[in-house]
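pinned: reference chain
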Amino acid sequence: MRRAVSVLGELLVTAGVLTLLFVVWQLYWTDLTSGRAQASTVSSLEQQWAAQAPTPTPTAPTATATAPTVDVDETPPTGDAFAIVYVPRWGSDYAVPVVEGTGTEELKEGIGHYADTAMPGEVGNFAIAGHRVTYGKPFNRVEELQDGDAVVVATATQWFTYRVRSHEIVSPRQVSVIAPVPDQPGATPTQAWLTMTACHPKHSARQRFVVHAELESVQDRSAGAPASLAAVGGN
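pinned: its structure tokens
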């Protein structure tokens, strides 16, 4: 009996150590490795876009109630990075790639784009998802976004500035939040929206924290970075 109790105790201690190591790996190591990989992807995209940029012809930002012609007119292959998201409220150094797809593997690579939703700047709903913890946690501070905050999306030739209009907390089954007109399934879109989704609360997948933003303006990359990229909130 004593030997059995001793063996059981050793097994429980071993299990506890393994569980602790798993938590450390899940919460910290994946952040480190995915964060580095995502930063590398951002750098690669910026270099690629700079290399293929046309001769600069500066133009002013264009305010738009409906979306203009956009440069990402075809859905990229699943897993491919095609855009970069900047959120000034989260700091001037915040820049995370957007990859096609929202599966487990895609969300390790950055922010995921929901299949069959609009592309950046298009009329409809450019819907994206990101982790709040683990794998670089790109949407860790999603609750801090305030009405009027800028969410800037860069593609190979354009900058798209969206402004936060609302947020909500919903069930994971409420997929209407990523409908072409958010929360109005079946409605015909006339504006360009961006919807950000993340698990809520942190460390749980029980609900989703959702932020809706409306396209405010579009600017060619040849005109330089938009003024909306200026950091806010003391970051």
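why pinned: The mean pLDDT is 85. The radius of gyration is 20 Å.
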